[in-house]
């Protein structure tokens, strides 16, 4: 109660202290934070983060933090967005080409960068965790207003980043005296991984089935472009999108609080914006591209295409894609990709082609993952040159840059794969695909598509009364807990101490709901009671043997709920589950559909804003 009486000065001081602390780690160019600076390597920001956690856990403080007042300068949310902006793209990693030697000394700066991203992710939910029953506060600022404020911050960063002279110098193949791969002329000077097309080709199949363009407007990013695993500003938007999917944070609030309404707000902002350079289509496209670049590079690392960068690249990927840190990193990127795809679809002028966003997404993934040619697709621009020139002249995307020594009249967009399948300038021969890495990239590509289809936000909680809303929250929390526990047990029997780690993957709101329910069964151990209840439903307890503690084993009938593509289980866990998965008890009927287990369960219910995405993909 004492902290509730405080005005926002406390939050202003804490956020300013956090921002000023991070500013000291800015590199000499003031473009991004230096991961080896003492502020990051020694986590000098941790005391401020701890204080923010303490304050934001008090009822009402998140609302005060997020209140947007036009008359106030440097209010907490604004300073927070600035802190996230300067932390974007920290610790860039540059791919080492196959002709380059192995890195001699592996930089340890990535640890400080990941610690900062994890600290950010621990605050996302606390900032957005508004209470449904706090009637003492004014709700003049809704979650949709907060989301729109974040969108404007992301767009500002997009503008600054893409206009940066250093960014263009890195991406422009002509500035490094290199030719594009199909430019003709001095072919031996071409270095494909240093070249960047102005647009990306669409597959011939997509065009034959009605896609309205033959090339994709896209960021001009070559394989050698430095990339970072850290885009906290986009991930904060992802966390806000999850809260929007939950519905209004105020019981009985009739305002439309959903991702679809946020898309409408972006359209309205575009129509009244005085910034002529702002394009809602470009915004959604860039919002889609940055997390996809991170996801594609993580896939390349898992496909062993970054081995010359050192083994610690794998450690970074493990922190990014596996529990418990994936909740604030990879998982946030996924919902941003899903939302940006819907947003891009809504900006398309051709309303008859309803799935243009999904088509754009799939073609973009084919190019970014480097599996376009390996899967046998042909590049549509070279098949439809007249249509390509027409679209370039119409301004749908930029024309390819042409070198002064080029002998070709038209330069078409091209695609690149780090696994091979391109021209080798030094030897004058084509490089064949590295079959193992190419197949692994295809597997990563298909797995991501499955995850984007299945791991969509659940339906919103729109019950009228507070009691009904709490009950609906508990039901959803139980469903997510059940799914996590089942997939933990699928790889083998586990002790209770290991199973309790599932709470790190669940949201803070889910854990609170489960604790309140568990308090009804066991007031002394409320957090563990809900897990015990769930284990009694899906597992059997095995007796302790020797020095081992008691373990829990998945019931046979529960294996029908196991998903071999569940994104919170590692590849090794899925391999173990495939070996342990039981067959039919009746040997004579094991091939009959009535006695066999389904390969995967039916996807869960989806939020109405994202139902279209599942249908189109």
Could you please describe the fold and organization of this structure?
- This protein has 617 residues and is mainly α.
- The chain has a domain at 456-616: Arc Repressor Mutant, subunit A (Orthogonal Bundle), CATH 1.10.10.
- 48% of the residues lie in helices and 4% in strands.
- It has helices spanning 9-23, 38-41, 46-56, 61-66, 76-86, 109-128, 143-162, 165-171, 204-208, 232-246, 259-272, 280-302, 312-321, 330-346, 356-369, 380-383, 385-393, 435-454, 466-489, 496-499, 508-521, 526-538, 571-580, 611-616; strands spanning 199-201, 215-217, 422-424, 429-431, 494-495, 539-542, 551-554.
- Strands 5-7-6 form a three-stranded antiparallel sheet.
Can you lay out the helices and strands and say which pair or pack?
Layout: H1 9-23, H2 38-41, H3 46-56, H4 61-66, H5 76-86, H6 109-128, H7 143-162, H8 165-171, E1 199-201, H9 204-208, E2 215-217, H10 232-246, H11 259-272, H12 280-302, H13 312-321, H14 330-346, H15 356-369, H16 380-383, H17 385-393, E3 422-424, E4 429-431, H18 435-454, H19 466-489, E5 494-495, H20 496-499, H21 508-521, H22 526-538, E6 539-542, E7 551-554, H23 571-580, H24 611-616
Antiparallel strand pairs: 1-2, 3-4, 5-7, 6-7
């Amino acid at each position: 109660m004492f902290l509730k009486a405080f005005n926002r000065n406390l939050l202003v001081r804490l956020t300013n202290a956090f921002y000023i602390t991070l500013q000291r780690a800015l590199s000499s160019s003031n473009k991004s934070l230096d991961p080896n600076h003492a502020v990051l390597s020694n986590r000098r920001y941790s005391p401020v983060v701890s204080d923010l956690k303490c304050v934001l856990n008090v009822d009402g403080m998140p609302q005060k933090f997020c209140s947007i007042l036009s008359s106030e300068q440097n209010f907490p949310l604004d300073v927070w967005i600035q802190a996230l902006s300067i932390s974007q793209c920290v610790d860039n990693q540059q791919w080492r080409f196959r002709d380059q030697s192995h890195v001699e000394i592996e930089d340890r700066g990535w640890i400080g960068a990941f610690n900062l991203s994890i600290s950010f992710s621990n605050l996302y939910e606390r900032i957005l965790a508004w209470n449904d029953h706090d009637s003492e506060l004014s709700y003049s600022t809704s979650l949709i207003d907060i989301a729109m404020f974040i969108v404007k911050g992301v767009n500002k960063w997009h503008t600054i980043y893409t206009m940066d002279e250093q960014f263009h110098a890195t991406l422009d193949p002509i500035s490094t005296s290199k030719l594009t791969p199909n430019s003709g002329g001095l072919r031996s000077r071409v270095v494909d991984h240093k070249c960047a097309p102005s647009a990306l080709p669409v597959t011939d199949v997509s065009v034959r089935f009605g896609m309205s363009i033959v090339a994709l407007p896209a960021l001009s990013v070559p394989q050698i472009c430095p990339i970072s695993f850290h885009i906290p500003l986009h991930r904060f938007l992802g966390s806000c999108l999850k809260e929007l999917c939950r519905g209004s944070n105020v019981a009985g609030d009739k305002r439309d609080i959903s991702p679809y309404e946020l898309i409408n707000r972006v359209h309205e902002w575009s129509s009244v914006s005085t910034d002529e350079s702002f394009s809602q289509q470009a915004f959604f496209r860039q919002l889609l591209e940055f997390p996809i670049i991170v996801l594609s590079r993580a896939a390349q690392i898992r496909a062993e295409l970054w081995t010359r960068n050192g083994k610690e690249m794998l450690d970074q990927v493990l922190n990014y894609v596996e529990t418990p840190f994936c909740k604030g990193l990879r998982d946030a990127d996924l919902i941003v990709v899903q939302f940006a795809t819907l947003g891009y679809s809504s900006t398309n002028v051709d309303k008859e082609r309803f799935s243009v966003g999904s088509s754009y997404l799939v073609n973009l993934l084919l190019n970014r993952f480097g599996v376009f040619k390996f899967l046998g697709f042909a590049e549509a621009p070279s098949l439809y040159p007249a249509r390509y020139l027409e679209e370039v002249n119409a301004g749908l995307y930029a024309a390819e840059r042409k070198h002064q020594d080029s002998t070709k009249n038209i330069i078409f967009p091209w695609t690149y794969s780090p696994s091979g399948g391109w021209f080798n300038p030094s030897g004058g021969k084509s490089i064949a695909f590295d079959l193992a890495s190419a197949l692994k990239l295809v597997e990563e590509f298909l797995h991501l598509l499955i995850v984007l289809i299945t791991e969509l936000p659940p339906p919103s909680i729109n019950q009228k009364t507070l009691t009904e809303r709490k009950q609906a929250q508990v039901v959803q929390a139980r469903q997510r807990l059940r799914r996590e526990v089942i997939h933990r047990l699928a790889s083998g029997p586990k002790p209770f101490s290991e199973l309790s780690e599932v709470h790190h993957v669940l949201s803070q709101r889910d854990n609170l709901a489960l604790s309140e329910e568990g308090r009804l069964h066991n007031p002394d151990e409320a957090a563990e009671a809900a897990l015990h209840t769930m284990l009694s439903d899906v597992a059997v307890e095995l007796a302790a043997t020797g020095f081992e503690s008691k373990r829990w084993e998945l019931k046979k009938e529960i294996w029908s709920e196991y998903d071999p593509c569940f994104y919170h289980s590692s590849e090794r866990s899925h391999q173990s589950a495939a070996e342990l998965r039981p067959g039919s008890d009746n040997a004579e009927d094991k091939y009959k559909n009535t006695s066999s287990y389904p390969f995967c369960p039916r996807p869960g219910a989806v939020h109405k804003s994202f139902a279209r995405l599942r249908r189109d993909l």
